[in-house]
Amino acid sequence: MIRRWPTLGLLVAVALLMGCSPGSDNKDTLRFGLATSPLTLDPRYATDAASARIIRLLYQPLVDLDASGKPIPSLAHWQQLSPTRYRFRLRLDRPRFHDGSKLSAQDVKATYTSVLDPDNGSPFLASLDKVQSIAVPNPETIDFVLKKPDSLFPGRLTLGIIPASLIAAGYPLNRIPVGNGPFRFKAWPEEGRLVLQRRRDRQEFVFVHVPDPTVRVLKLLRGEIHMLQNDLPQELVAYLEDKEEIFLQRGRGNTFTYLGFNLNDPVTGQPQVRLAIAHALDRQKIIRYVFKGAARPAQALLPPEHWAGHPALPPHAYDPQRARKLLKEAGFNTHSPARISYKTSSDPFRVRLATIIQHQLQQVGIQVEVQSYDWGTFYGDIKAGRFQMYSLSWVGVKLPDAFHYIFHSESAPPQGANRGHFNDPQSDFLIERAGNTDNQNQQANFYRQLQARLLEQLPYVPLWYEDNVFAARRGISHYLLAPDGNYDSLVKVRFRLEYVAP
Questions:
Q1: Which of 11, 12, 274, 295 could make an S-S bridge to 464, C-beta 3.0–4.6 Å?
Q2: For residue 324, how many other CB atoms are within 10 A of its CB?
Q3: pLDDT of 142-155, one tens digit each?
Protein backbone atom coordinates (compact mmCIF):
# COMPACT_ATOMS: atom_id res chain seq x y z
CA MET A 1 0.00 0.00 0.00
CA ILE A 2 1.39 3.44 -0.97
CA ARG A 3 1.62 5.94 1.89
CA ARG A 4 -0.03 9.27 1.24
CA TRP A 5 1.64 12.49 2.29
CA PRO A 6 0.29 14.82 5.01
CA THR A 7 -2.57 17.06 4.00
CA LEU A 8 -2.78 20.72 4.93
CA GLY A 9 -5.09 19.78 7.78
CA LEU A 10 -2.54 17.41 9.23
CA LEU A 11 0.20 20.03 8.87
CA VAL A 12 -1.90 22.45 10.89
CA ALA A 13 -2.68 19.82 13.52
CA VAL A 14 0.99 18.93 13.94
CA ALA A 15 1.84 22.62 14.21
CA LEU A 16 -0.65 23.06 17.05
CA LEU A 17 0.77 20.05 18.86
CA MET A 18 4.28 21.44 18.49
CA GLY A 19 3.37 24.59 20.36
CA CYS A 20 4.48 28.10 19.52
CA SER A 21 7.81 28.65 21.23
CA PRO A 22 10.69 29.63 18.93
CA GLY A 23 14.11 28.01 18.97
CA SER A 24 16.41 28.66 21.92
CA ASP A 25 19.37 30.04 19.93
CA ASN A 26 20.29 33.70 19.79
CA LYS A 27 17.92 35.64 17.53
CA ASP A 28 20.86 36.51 15.25
CA THR A 29 21.71 32.84 14.70
CA LEU A 30 20.79 31.24 11.38
CA ARG A 31 19.43 27.71 11.62
CA PHE A 32 19.72 25.13 8.83
CA GLY A 33 17.47 22.06 8.92
CA LEU A 34 19.07 18.69 8.11
CA ALA A 35 17.34 15.44 7.22
CA THR A 36 20.35 13.46 8.52
CA SER A 37 23.06 14.37 11.00
CA PRO A 38 26.77 14.21 10.14
CA LEU A 39 28.45 11.07 11.43
CA THR A 40 31.97 12.51 11.70
CA LEU A 41 33.75 15.82 11.14
CA ASP A 42 37.12 14.20 10.40
CA PRO A 43 37.75 14.49 6.62
CA ARG A 44 39.82 11.31 6.63
CA TYR A 45 36.78 9.18 7.44
CA ALA A 46 33.67 10.96 6.14
CA THR A 47 31.75 9.09 3.47
CA ASP A 48 28.15 10.15 4.20
CA ALA A 49 26.71 13.20 2.45
CA ALA A 50 25.88 15.26 5.56
CA SER A 51 29.42 14.90 6.93
CA ALA A 52 31.07 15.63 3.57
CA ARG A 53 29.02 18.78 2.99
CA ILE A 54 29.75 20.25 6.41
CA ILE A 55 33.42 19.26 6.24
CA ARG A 56 33.72 21.38 3.08
CA LEU A 57 32.82 24.38 5.25
CA LEU A 58 35.38 23.54 7.93
CA TYR A 59 38.38 22.52 5.84
CA GLN A 60 40.13 23.36 2.60
CA PRO A 61 41.79 20.74 0.38
CA LEU A 62 44.86 21.02 -1.80
CA VAL A 63 42.68 20.50 -4.88
CA ASP A 64 38.99 20.88 -5.63
CA LEU A 65 36.92 19.63 -8.57
CA ASP A 66 34.79 21.78 -10.85
CA ALA A 67 31.26 20.94 -11.97
CA SER A 68 32.51 18.70 -14.79
CA GLY A 69 34.86 16.80 -12.48
CA LYS A 70 38.14 18.42 -13.55
CA PRO A 71 40.73 19.33 -10.87
CA ILE A 72 41.28 22.99 -9.97
CA PRO A 73 43.69 24.53 -7.41
CA SER A 74 42.41 25.20 -3.90
CA LEU A 75 45.19 25.46 -1.30
CA ALA A 76 47.91 24.72 -3.81
CA HIS A 77 48.99 24.87 -7.44
CA TRP A 78 50.82 21.92 -8.91
CA GLN A 79 53.14 20.82 -11.66
CA GLN A 80 54.01 17.36 -12.91
CA LEU A 81 57.76 16.95 -12.66
CA SER A 82 57.76 13.46 -14.19
CA PRO A 83 55.19 10.76 -14.96
CA THR A 84 55.35 9.70 -11.31
CA ARG A 85 56.21 12.91 -9.44
CA TYR A 86 53.90 15.83 -8.63
CA ARG A 87 54.94 19.01 -6.84
CA PHE A 88 52.37 21.10 -4.98
CA ARG A 89 53.14 24.65 -3.82
CA LEU A 90 50.91 26.13 -1.14
CA ARG A 91 49.29 29.49 -1.77
CA LEU A 92 50.98 32.28 0.13
CA ASP A 93 47.59 33.74 1.06
CA ARG A 94 46.23 30.49 2.49
CA PRO A 95 44.09 30.87 5.62
CA ARG A 96 45.41 29.80 8.99
CA PHE A 97 43.99 26.93 10.99
CA HIS A 98 41.19 27.82 13.35
CA ASP A 99 43.55 27.51 16.34
CA GLY A 100 45.72 30.27 14.86
CA SER A 101 48.57 28.07 13.63
CA LYS A 102 49.88 28.34 10.08
CA LEU A 103 49.13 25.53 7.66
CA SER A 104 52.38 24.08 6.31
CA ALA A 105 53.55 21.31 4.03
CA GLN A 106 54.11 19.14 7.11
CA ASP A 107 50.38 19.28 7.85
CA VAL A 108 49.64 18.11 4.32
CA LYS A 109 52.12 15.26 4.67
CA ALA A 110 50.72 14.24 8.06
CA THR A 111 47.15 14.23 6.78
CA TYR A 112 47.91 11.99 3.80
CA THR A 113 50.38 9.79 5.68
CA SER A 114 47.61 9.12 8.19
CA VAL A 115 45.22 8.11 5.40
CA LEU A 116 47.87 5.87 3.83
CA ASP A 117 48.41 3.96 7.10
CA PRO A 118 46.21 0.83 6.74
CA ASP A 119 45.96 0.54 10.53
CA ASN A 120 43.89 3.74 10.57
CA GLY A 121 41.16 2.30 8.37
CA SER A 122 40.52 5.35 6.22
CA PRO A 123 38.02 4.63 3.42
CA PHE A 124 40.16 6.82 1.12
CA LEU A 125 43.22 4.57 1.28
CA ALA A 126 42.27 2.67 -1.88
CA SER A 127 42.11 5.81 -4.02
CA LEU A 128 45.62 6.79 -2.90
CA ASP A 129 47.29 3.40 -3.10
CA LYS A 130 49.61 4.52 -5.92
CA VAL A 131 51.42 6.93 -3.57
CA GLN A 132 54.90 5.63 -2.84
CA SER A 133 56.24 8.51 -0.74
CA ILE A 134 55.57 12.08 0.32
CA ALA A 135 58.43 14.56 0.69
CA VAL A 136 58.53 18.11 2.09
CA PRO A 137 61.42 20.09 0.49
CA ASN A 138 60.35 23.22 2.40
CA PRO A 139 57.35 24.46 4.43
CA GLU A 140 55.56 25.60 1.28
CA THR A 141 56.16 22.56 -0.97
CA ILE A 142 54.97 18.96 -1.02
CA ASP A 143 56.17 16.29 -3.44
CA PHE A 144 54.11 13.16 -4.07
CA VAL A 145 56.00 10.27 -5.65
CA LEU A 146 53.86 7.55 -7.21
CA LYS A 147 54.53 3.87 -7.77
CA LYS A 148 53.29 4.23 -11.33
CA PRO A 149 51.76 7.00 -13.47
CA ASP A 150 48.28 8.19 -12.56
CA SER A 151 46.85 10.95 -14.72
CA LEU A 152 43.92 11.46 -12.33
CA PHE A 153 46.20 11.96 -9.33
CA PRO A 154 45.74 15.71 -8.65
CA GLY A 155 41.98 15.16 -8.45
CA ARG A 156 42.46 12.64 -5.66
CA LEU A 157 43.85 15.24 -3.26
CA THR A 158 40.50 16.66 -2.17
CA LEU A 159 40.70 15.85 1.53
CA GLY A 160 40.65 18.68 4.04
CA ILE A 161 44.04 19.29 5.67
CA ILE A 162 44.45 18.67 9.42
CA PRO A 163 47.14 20.07 11.77
CA ALA A 164 49.97 17.54 12.10
CA SER A 165 50.26 18.22 15.84
CA LEU A 166 46.65 17.19 16.44
CA ILE A 167 47.04 14.01 14.40
CA ALA A 168 50.10 13.09 16.47
CA ALA A 169 48.24 13.81 19.71
CA GLY A 170 45.25 11.67 18.74
CA TYR A 171 42.95 14.67 19.04
CA PRO A 172 39.20 13.80 18.66
CA LEU A 173 38.80 15.48 15.27
CA ASN A 174 35.66 13.50 14.56
CA ARG A 175 33.85 15.57 17.22
CA ILE A 176 36.01 18.68 17.61
CA PRO A 177 37.38 19.59 14.17
CA VAL A 178 40.19 22.08 13.62
CA GLY A 179 40.40 23.07 9.98
CA ASN A 180 41.17 26.22 8.01
CA GLY A 181 37.92 26.57 6.06
CA PRO A 182 35.53 29.53 5.96
CA PHE A 183 33.66 28.20 9.01
CA ARG A 184 35.07 27.24 12.39
CA PHE A 185 33.63 24.69 14.78
CA LYS A 186 31.98 26.19 17.84
CA ALA A 187 29.97 23.46 19.58
CA TRP A 188 28.28 20.11 19.18
CA PRO A 189 26.32 20.17 22.43
CA GLU A 190 24.03 17.29 21.55
CA GLU A 191 23.24 14.91 18.74
CA GLY A 192 21.28 16.78 16.11
CA ARG A 193 22.57 20.26 16.95
CA LEU A 194 25.90 21.43 15.51
CA VAL A 195 27.06 25.05 15.83
CA LEU A 196 29.52 26.63 13.37
CA GLN A 197 30.73 30.21 13.07
CA ARG A 198 31.53 31.94 9.80
CA ARG A 199 35.03 33.35 10.08
CA ARG A 200 34.65 36.54 8.05
CA ASP A 201 31.85 38.04 10.15
CA ARG A 202 31.39 35.68 13.15
CA GLN A 203 27.87 34.84 12.00
CA GLU A 204 26.64 31.71 13.76
CA PHE A 205 24.91 28.84 11.98
CA VAL A 206 23.21 25.97 13.76
CA PHE A 207 22.65 22.72 11.82
CA VAL A 208 19.55 21.13 13.31
CA HIS A 209 18.65 17.51 12.67
CA VAL A 210 14.93 17.27 11.92
CA PRO A 211 14.40 13.84 10.35
CA ASP A 212 10.71 14.18 9.58
CA PRO A 213 10.20 16.38 6.50
CA THR A 214 6.76 17.55 7.62
CA VAL A 215 8.15 18.77 10.92
CA ARG A 216 11.10 20.34 9.10
CA VAL A 217 8.72 22.34 6.91
CA LEU A 218 6.65 23.40 9.92
CA LYS A 219 9.77 24.59 11.70
CA LEU A 220 10.70 26.61 8.62
CA LEU A 221 7.26 28.21 8.49
CA ARG A 222 7.39 29.08 12.17
CA GLY A 223 10.91 30.49 12.01
CA GLU A 224 12.49 27.78 14.16
CA ILE A 225 14.78 27.07 11.24
CA HIS A 226 15.59 29.52 8.46
CA MET A 227 16.82 27.25 5.66
CA LEU A 228 16.57 23.68 4.46
CA GLN A 229 17.74 21.82 1.39
CA ASN A 230 16.50 18.66 -0.33
CA ASP A 231 14.96 15.54 1.21
CA LEU A 232 11.42 16.85 0.77
CA PRO A 233 8.51 15.17 -1.00
CA GLN A 234 7.21 17.28 -3.82
CA GLU A 235 3.85 17.76 -2.08
CA LEU A 236 5.64 19.71 0.63
CA VAL A 237 7.69 21.63 -1.94
CA ALA A 238 4.47 22.66 -3.68
CA TYR A 239 2.99 23.61 -0.31
CA LEU A 240 5.97 25.89 0.39
CA GLU A 241 5.70 27.51 -3.03
CA ASP A 242 2.41 29.07 -1.99
CA LYS A 243 3.83 30.63 1.16
CA GLU A 244 4.62 34.32 0.82
CA GLU A 245 7.20 34.19 3.62
CA ILE A 246 9.22 31.44 1.88
CA PHE A 247 11.74 31.76 -0.94
CA LEU A 248 12.17 28.60 -3.03
CA GLN A 249 15.01 27.75 -5.41
CA ARG A 250 15.28 24.70 -7.69
CA GLY A 251 18.21 23.32 -9.70
CA ARG A 252 19.27 20.22 -11.59
CA GLY A 253 21.22 17.78 -9.45
CA ASN A 254 23.73 14.99 -10.03
CA THR A 255 23.09 12.95 -6.88
CA PHE A 256 22.85 9.36 -8.15
CA THR A 257 20.22 7.14 -6.50
CA TYR A 258 20.34 3.39 -7.04
CA LEU A 259 19.37 -0.05 -5.81
CA GLY A 260 22.35 -2.01 -4.52
CA PHE A 261 22.59 -5.79 -4.12
CA ASN A 262 24.48 -8.47 -2.24
CA LEU A 263 25.91 -10.42 -5.16
CA ASN A 264 26.83 -13.36 -2.92
CA ASP A 265 23.15 -13.84 -2.08
CA PRO A 266 21.41 -16.77 -3.82
CA VAL A 267 18.57 -14.51 -5.01
CA THR A 268 20.03 -11.06 -5.70
CA GLY A 269 23.27 -12.63 -6.89
CA GLN A 270 21.47 -13.94 -9.98
CA PRO A 271 21.82 -11.63 -13.01
CA GLN A 272 18.33 -12.54 -14.24
CA VAL A 273 16.81 -11.36 -10.96
CA ARG A 274 18.57 -8.00 -11.07
CA LEU A 275 17.59 -7.52 -14.71
CA ALA A 276 14.02 -8.46 -13.83
CA ILE A 277 14.04 -5.79 -11.12
CA ALA A 278 15.32 -3.23 -13.63
CA HIS A 279 12.47 -4.04 -16.03
CA ALA A 280 9.85 -4.18 -13.25
CA LEU A 281 10.46 -0.59 -12.14
CA ASP A 282 8.43 2.16 -13.79
CA ARG A 283 10.88 4.94 -13.05
CA GLN A 284 9.13 7.44 -15.30
CA LYS A 285 5.91 7.05 -13.33
CA ILE A 286 7.74 7.50 -10.03
CA ILE A 287 9.48 10.61 -11.35
CA ARG A 288 6.23 12.01 -12.72
CA TYR A 289 3.92 11.35 -9.77
CA VAL A 290 6.22 11.20 -6.73
CA PHE A 291 8.95 13.66 -7.72
CA LYS A 292 6.50 15.78 -9.76
CA GLY A 293 9.11 15.83 -12.50
CA ALA A 294 11.91 17.02 -10.18
CA ALA A 295 14.31 14.21 -11.14
CA ARG A 296 15.66 12.60 -14.30
CA PRO A 297 16.29 8.92 -15.04
CA ALA A 298 19.83 7.72 -14.43
CA GLN A 299 21.67 5.01 -16.33
CA ALA A 300 25.09 5.41 -14.67
CA LEU A 301 26.96 6.78 -11.68
CA LEU A 302 28.20 9.78 -13.68
CA PRO A 303 25.67 12.09 -15.36
CA PRO A 304 25.97 12.54 -19.14
CA GLU A 305 27.38 16.08 -18.77
CA HIS A 306 30.45 14.82 -16.86
CA TRP A 307 33.61 14.75 -19.00
CA ALA A 308 33.70 10.96 -18.59
CA GLY A 309 29.93 10.46 -18.63
CA HIS A 310 28.17 8.42 -21.28
CA PRO A 311 25.84 10.56 -23.43
CA ALA A 312 23.65 7.75 -24.77
CA LEU A 313 23.26 4.69 -22.56
CA PRO A 314 20.09 2.75 -23.48
CA PRO A 315 17.74 2.54 -20.47
CA HIS A 316 16.14 -0.64 -19.19
CA ALA A 317 12.58 -0.09 -20.36
CA TYR A 318 9.63 -0.74 -18.09
CA ASP A 319 8.62 -4.22 -19.22
CA PRO A 320 6.85 -6.30 -16.54
CA GLN A 321 6.24 -9.17 -18.98
CA ARG A 322 9.96 -9.55 -19.60
CA ALA A 323 10.61 -9.25 -15.86
CA ARG A 324 8.31 -12.21 -15.20
CA LYS A 325 10.02 -14.23 -17.93
CA LEU A 326 13.46 -13.52 -16.44
CA LEU A 327 12.28 -14.59 -12.99
CA LYS A 328 10.96 -17.83 -14.46
CA GLU A 329 14.35 -18.44 -16.11
CA ALA A 330 15.96 -17.92 -12.70
CA GLY A 331 13.74 -20.65 -11.22
CA PHE A 332 11.06 -18.59 -9.52
CA ASN A 333 7.28 -18.81 -9.97
CA THR A 334 4.04 -18.06 -8.11
CA HIS A 335 4.48 -21.14 -5.90
CA SER A 336 8.12 -20.38 -5.18
CA PRO A 337 8.58 -16.59 -5.55
CA ALA A 338 11.78 -14.64 -5.20
CA ARG A 339 11.90 -13.15 -1.71
CA ILE A 340 14.00 -10.08 -1.04
CA SER A 341 14.68 -8.03 2.08
CA TYR A 342 14.95 -4.35 1.13
CA LYS A 343 16.73 -2.00 3.55
CA THR A 344 16.27 1.75 3.57
CA SER A 345 16.52 4.66 6.01
CA SER A 346 13.61 5.68 8.22
CA ASP A 347 13.28 9.03 6.45
CA PRO A 348 9.55 9.13 5.56
CA PHE A 349 10.16 10.05 1.94
CA ARG A 350 12.68 7.21 1.50
CA VAL A 351 10.23 4.80 3.12
CA ARG A 352 7.54 6.03 0.75
CA LEU A 353 9.78 5.42 -2.27
CA ALA A 354 10.72 1.98 -0.93
CA THR A 355 7.03 1.13 -0.53
CA ILE A 356 6.34 2.11 -4.14
CA ILE A 357 9.30 0.02 -5.36
CA GLN A 358 8.04 -2.85 -3.20
CA HIS A 359 4.62 -2.57 -4.86
CA GLN A 360 6.05 -2.50 -8.40
CA LEU A 361 8.26 -5.54 -7.76
CA GLN A 362 5.36 -7.44 -6.24
CA GLN A 363 3.44 -6.93 -9.50
CA VAL A 364 5.95 -9.20 -11.29
CA GLY A 365 6.08 -11.79 -8.51
CA ILE A 366 8.94 -10.62 -6.26
CA GLN A 367 8.00 -10.67 -2.58
CA VAL A 368 9.72 -7.71 -0.93
CA GLU A 369 10.02 -6.97 2.78
CA VAL A 370 10.87 -3.32 3.46
CA GLN A 371 13.04 -2.77 6.53
CA SER A 372 13.65 0.85 7.59
CA TYR A 373 16.17 1.97 10.19
CA ASP A 374 17.52 5.20 11.61
CA TRP A 375 20.30 6.57 9.44
CA GLY A 376 23.21 5.45 11.60
CA THR A 377 21.98 1.87 11.89
CA PHE A 378 21.03 1.66 8.22
CA TYR A 379 24.32 3.07 6.94
CA GLY A 380 26.27 0.87 9.34
CA ASP A 381 24.52 -2.21 7.98
CA ILE A 382 25.27 -1.22 4.39
CA LYS A 383 28.96 -0.58 5.10
CA ALA A 384 29.17 -3.92 6.91
CA GLY A 385 27.50 -5.81 4.05
CA ARG A 386 24.42 -6.76 6.07
CA PHE A 387 21.86 -6.51 3.28
CA GLN A 388 20.21 -8.32 0.42
CA MET A 389 18.97 -5.20 -1.41
CA TYR A 390 19.07 -1.54 -0.41
CA SER A 391 18.68 1.93 -1.86
CA LEU A 392 21.18 4.73 -1.38
CA SER A 393 22.62 7.72 -3.20
CA TRP A 394 26.13 8.71 -4.21
CA VAL A 395 26.45 12.43 -3.65
CA GLY A 396 28.90 14.69 -5.45
CA VAL A 397 30.87 12.05 -7.37
CA LYS A 398 33.16 14.00 -9.68
CA LEU A 399 36.32 11.92 -10.08
CA PRO A 400 35.72 8.93 -12.37
CA ASP A 401 38.15 6.87 -10.34
CA ALA A 402 35.15 6.39 -8.05
CA PHE A 403 34.44 3.42 -10.33
CA HIS A 404 37.53 1.71 -8.90
CA TYR A 405 36.49 2.49 -5.33
CA ILE A 406 32.93 1.24 -5.87
CA PHE A 407 33.11 -1.55 -8.46
CA HIS A 408 36.63 -3.02 -8.71
CA SER A 409 36.91 -6.54 -7.32
CA GLU A 410 39.83 -5.42 -5.13
CA SER A 411 37.68 -2.72 -3.49
CA ALA A 412 35.57 -4.87 -1.19
CA PRO A 413 35.42 -3.34 2.30
CA PRO A 414 37.56 -2.21 4.03
CA GLN A 415 39.64 -1.48 0.89
CA GLY A 416 36.75 0.31 -0.81
CA ALA A 417 32.99 0.55 -1.24
CA ASN A 418 32.34 -2.56 -3.34
CA ARG A 419 29.86 -3.60 -0.66
CA GLY A 420 27.95 -6.01 -2.87
CA HIS A 421 31.17 -7.90 -3.80
CA PHE A 422 30.86 -7.31 -7.54
CA ASN A 423 33.50 -9.34 -9.39
CA ASP A 424 33.68 -8.94 -13.16
CA PRO A 425 37.05 -9.32 -14.95
CA GLN A 426 35.92 -7.19 -17.90
CA SER A 427 34.90 -4.33 -15.61
CA ASP A 428 38.20 -4.61 -13.73
CA PHE A 429 40.06 -4.49 -17.06
CA LEU A 430 38.25 -1.32 -18.18
CA ILE A 431 38.76 0.36 -14.80
CA GLU A 432 42.48 -0.41 -14.92
CA ARG A 433 42.90 0.66 -18.55
CA ALA A 434 41.18 3.96 -17.81
CA GLY A 435 43.37 4.50 -14.76
CA ASN A 436 46.57 3.78 -16.68
CA THR A 437 45.81 6.01 -19.67
CA ASP A 438 47.23 9.54 -19.81
CA ASN A 439 45.11 10.78 -22.69
CA GLN A 440 41.83 12.17 -21.36
CA ASN A 441 39.86 11.32 -24.51
CA GLN A 442 41.00 7.72 -24.27
CA GLN A 443 40.17 7.68 -20.58
CA ALA A 444 36.67 8.95 -21.29
CA ASN A 445 36.22 6.23 -23.89
CA PHE A 446 37.22 3.48 -21.43
CA TYR A 447 34.93 4.90 -18.74
CA ARG A 448 32.03 4.98 -21.21
CA GLN A 449 32.65 1.36 -22.13
CA LEU A 450 32.73 0.57 -18.42
CA GLN A 451 29.41 2.29 -17.77
CA ALA A 452 27.81 0.30 -20.59
CA ARG A 453 29.22 -2.90 -19.08
CA LEU A 454 27.90 -2.03 -15.60
CA LEU A 455 24.47 -1.43 -17.08
CA GLU A 456 24.61 -4.96 -18.49
CA GLN A 457 25.87 -6.61 -15.29
CA LEU A 458 23.77 -4.49 -12.90
CA PRO A 459 25.69 -4.52 -9.62
CA TYR A 460 23.46 -1.47 -9.16
CA VAL A 461 20.09 -0.81 -10.76
CA PRO A 462 20.30 2.94 -11.55
CA LEU A 463 17.22 4.92 -10.56
CA TRP A 464 17.48 8.69 -11.00
CA TYR A 465 19.34 11.94 -10.41
CA GLU A 466 17.26 14.03 -8.05
CA ASP A 467 16.89 17.77 -8.55
CA ASN A 468 17.97 20.06 -5.74
CA VAL A 469 15.61 22.36 -3.88
CA PHE A 470 16.45 25.06 -1.36
CA ALA A 471 13.79 26.69 0.79
CA ALA A 472 14.41 29.66 3.06
CA ARG A 473 12.57 32.38 4.88
CA ARG A 474 12.30 35.72 3.12
CA GLY A 475 15.34 37.83 3.91
CA ILE A 476 17.84 35.04 3.14
CA SER A 477 19.75 35.84 -0.05
CA HIS A 478 22.89 34.95 -2.05
CA TYR A 479 22.43 31.18 -1.74
CA LEU A 480 23.12 29.36 -5.00
CA LEU A 481 22.33 25.67 -5.39
CA ALA A 482 25.21 23.47 -6.53
CA PRO A 483 24.58 20.37 -8.70
CA ASP A 484 26.08 18.12 -6.03
CA GLY A 485 24.01 19.71 -3.26
CA ASN A 486 26.94 21.08 -1.25
CA TYR A 487 26.46 23.89 1.27
CA ASP A 488 29.29 26.08 -0.01
CA SER A 489 26.97 29.05 -0.62
CA LEU A 490 26.55 29.49 3.12
CA VAL A 491 29.86 31.35 2.86
CA LYS A 492 28.03 34.10 0.95
CA VAL A 493 24.57 33.97 2.51
CA ARG A 494 23.13 37.28 3.64
CA PHE A 495 19.96 38.01 5.55
CA ARG A 496 17.79 40.85 6.69
CA LEU A 497 17.00 40.16 10.31
CA GLU A 498 13.52 41.67 10.33
CA TYR A 499 12.43 39.05 7.77
CA VAL A 500 14.30 36.09 9.24
CA ALA A 501 13.52 36.33 12.93
CA PRO A 502 10.48 34.33 14.12
A1: 295
A2: 20
A3: 999 999 888 889 99
